[in-house]
Amino acid sequence: MSDQLLALNNYRFLRAEARNFSLETLTDILDKFTAVVEERREEQASKGVQDAEHAKRVDKIREMMLSEGIDISELVQQTPPAKPSKQTREKRPAKYEYTDSSGINHTWTGQGRTPAVIQKALDQGYTLDKFLIKS
Hints:
Structural class: mainly alpha
Distance between the termini: 68 Å
Number of strands: 2
Number of helices: 5
Radius of gyration: 36 Å
Strand order of the largest sheet: 1-2
């Protein structure tokens, strides 16, 4: 609950705040608050009616199924087949090999961002052929 609503729920707070307003303003606030409460009551009553109608429909369908000799568990067991999962493609083989500044060898497929070591070499005029993995 928000701090404002908690404050409205406090009788002492309301009494103290009410002293700051005229009786006419308080009456106007009361009318608006009463209208909001009535709307909420109507919403709840409407929801109750909808829930009751839904329950009646479910009971009617259940009775129809039983009269036809169909058990609910039979329907639950017959679920539709699952959609095939998205197939992932195979990993691409590495095309290039390079050694970073700490002396560790790495590979790169040629896809995605160019590794900094290779990019630096390309900027210096080298070609990717220098980094090709020889098979």
